Every structure is written in structure tokens, then in C-alpha cells.
Amino acid sequence: MQRSLRQLTPEHLDIVKEIANIGSGHAATSLSKILEQRIDMAVPSVEIASFSDLLNMDDAETPVVAAYLKMSGALPGHLFIMFDLGEVDDLMKPMLRGNPLNAEELLVNPLYSSFLGEIGNIMAGAYISALSDFSGRNSYLSPPQVCVDMKSAVLSEGILDLSLYEDQVMVINAVLSNGETHQTIHSAFTLLPELSGLSSFIELLEGKNG
Amino acid sequence: MVEVLAVGLSDIKVARQGQNLRSSGLGSCVGLVLFDSLRHIAGMAHIMLPDNKITRGKAHPPGKFANTAVPELLKQLLAIGAKKSNLYAKMAGGAEMFRTTTGFTANIGMRNIEAVKAELDAHHFELVSADVGGNFGRSIEFVTETGDLRIHTVSQGDKVI
């Protein structure tokens, strides 16, 4: 039978949310260390969105900072971790030492992009290890690639192959906040599983739910 | 007052004088415009992939693939009064946003550009201008009144072709 994200029930999504929650906890701990400040992460929300919701015209042009990682192993697919450009300042404060940040700098300064790649790596790694623990099957991540560009231009890369059999994606929205300043940093974690990964993912959730 | 028609992923839309056509956030996708400047009629396709031969059963909109988008765009333009002999093409997009994409999406931006060019040749359409490739996204708006294609980017400035 053709598998689709549409088949996921609210109970399935609760399981995903729980996995994401564990992942967020790990990610917050790791980020606190690298950023040398307390980072809290709120309980993430999980939603299934259509491509047209994901790439809606209103914010298609919004500049985002994105880390892209390719997933392989038990759950092959594409992962995008995106931050609002305007909020990345806060995330990078320990590196910037008071200097303001702009998009050009993020693009040309390899130190900044590798730093953002590492943030993406930590967050993705935390979620994926939570998922691997839960499923007992390992997934692996490619090194991150960082890109600053329009949201739609970035995300459409991940849906090219997916769009041949699926028209929906899973989005995990996480809100990071600085424990001292209470500044919030929104991040969206978009998971685009390949067809083979999608089947095993849904079977896994059904197994745990049954 | 000019009305702006949004051309989303895999869409094809046509416009008359007083209407502009717009595609936001093109990455490896190609925004193709065919226009009849005498009659101020234009059409835009937001093409994602080169060829529909890779599909597996599921029905797809014609605007999604270069080889199905061009004939459909032509059909719709003729239906609202364009003359084929007076249609010219402009296009933008076809970037490589990331280097790691493998499998059939490898070099997809370049392959989209080539596929669109091949289709235009097959239909004997002249490509009057293009802004393609690179590693950055583009938003485009075609001004039906003047035949200008306006291009906006985050980091590479704006231009008109």
C-alpha cells in the first residue's frame, strides 16, 4: 500500500511529539554548552502541512538561515533547520562580541556559517538520536550545509523528489529561549522523508501505537 | 492599478494587460515566461523538474515539468488570443542551492534550464533573456505592459531583464 503522511493519526503525532521533546531536551543541553549560556527549549509542536502551506506565498521570500542535512539509514530523507534571520543575532551573540550581523556576513564569513552548521548539527543530531533510541534502528546525518536565502527557495530543494509521490511534510516547531535574557529564537525543523523512509516510519509508529 | 497573479509551485497562469505574473522564492525551479508583446498577453510556468518520465503513476500538474509545461503554456496563451509567431521567452531560476543533493535531483537547477531551453527550441521560441544558475534564490515578476522581467534576490541585488 502507498504510504502517506496523511495516514498519521493524532496518536501517532503525539508519539512524534514525545520523540521531539526528548530530542529538544538533549539539544538544549548541548546548545547551552556551546553558547555558554542557559538555553531553554519549549515543548515543540508537530504538524503535517501541505506543500502549499509550507511554501505559501506570504512568506515565500522571507530570508531564513537554514542548515540542510541529508538523512540516511533507517529513515532516509531531508532535514532542514531554519531560523528567522532577524533572530540569529541572539543565537550568535557569544561569537559576535557586540557586532551587528547581516546576511552578507553570514554568507561570506566561513566562521559564522560553520558555527550555524554546528548549531544545526547539534539540533538535528539530538532529534535523530532520540528517534534512533525510540525505534532501535539507526539513522545517520550528512555534514550540514548552511544557506541564507528565501524560505521557499531553500525548502523547495527538499521536496523535489518527495513531490513525485507525496504532497505533505512534517514540521516540528521548536522555540529556543535564552534562560537569562528570555529572548526567544524560533526554529522550524522540517522533516522530508523519502518514500522508503516514510513507510518504515509509519510502520514504526503504528507498531508502537498498537 | 496592476493586479499581480501569483504563480505557485507547478502552476501555469496567463495574464493580460493590467495584470503582472509573479513567482516567489525560485531555487532550482525555473520561472518561464512566454509573452506576446503586441497584444500584451503573457503566461508564466513555475517548473520544478525537467521531465515527467520520472513519475510513477500519480497525476501531476503540467506546469511541474519542462516538457509538459511549455505545450500547456502555449495552449493557454493561444486560448486567450496570443499569436504563436509573436511569442518570445524569458526565464530565471535554476540555481543550485546545495551541493550534496544526489540521485535524480543532482544538478537539478542546470538540468531544468537545459530542459526548458530544449523545449523552447522544439517549439521555435526565441529566448530573449535569461538570468539563471548561481547558488541563490530569486523572486520574479513579469510586467505584461512593458515585457520586463523583474528579478529580486536576498544577497545578489535586484535587476530587470
TrEMBL record, chain A:
Keywords: Chemotaxis, Hydrolase. Gene3D superfamilies: CheC-like (3.40.1550.10). InterPro entries: CheC, CheC-like_sf, CheZ_family_phosphatases. SUPFAM superfamilies: CheC-like. The keyword Hydrolase applies. GO terms for biological process: chemotaxis. GO terms for molecular function: hydrolase activity. Residues 11-48, 114-146 form the CheC-like protein domain. The keyword Cell wall biogenesis/degradation does not apply. This is CheY-P phosphatase CheC. It comes from Pullulanibacillus pueri. The lineage of its organism: Bacteria, Bacillati, Bacillota, Bacilli, Bacillales. The gene is cheC.
From TrEMBL, chain B:
GO terms for biological process: chemotaxis. It holds the Pfam family CheD. Keywords: Chemotaxis, Hydrolase. One of its GO terms (molecular function) is protein-glutamine glutaminase activity. Probably deamidates glutamine residues to glutamate on methyl-accepting chemotaxis receptors (MCPs), playing an important role in chemotaxis. The keyword Kinase does not apply. CDD domains: CheD (cd16352). InterPro entries: CheD-like_sf, Chemorcpt_Glu_NH3ase_CheD, Cytotoxic_necrot_fac-like_cat. It catalyses: L-glutaminyl-[protein] + H2O = L-glutamyl-[protein] + NH4(+). Its EC number is 3.5.1.44. It comes from Pullulanibacillus pueri. Gene3D superfamilies: 3.30.1330.200. It is an enzyme of class 3 (hydrolase). This is Probable chemoreceptor glutamine deamidase CheD. The gene is cheD. Belongs to the CheD family.
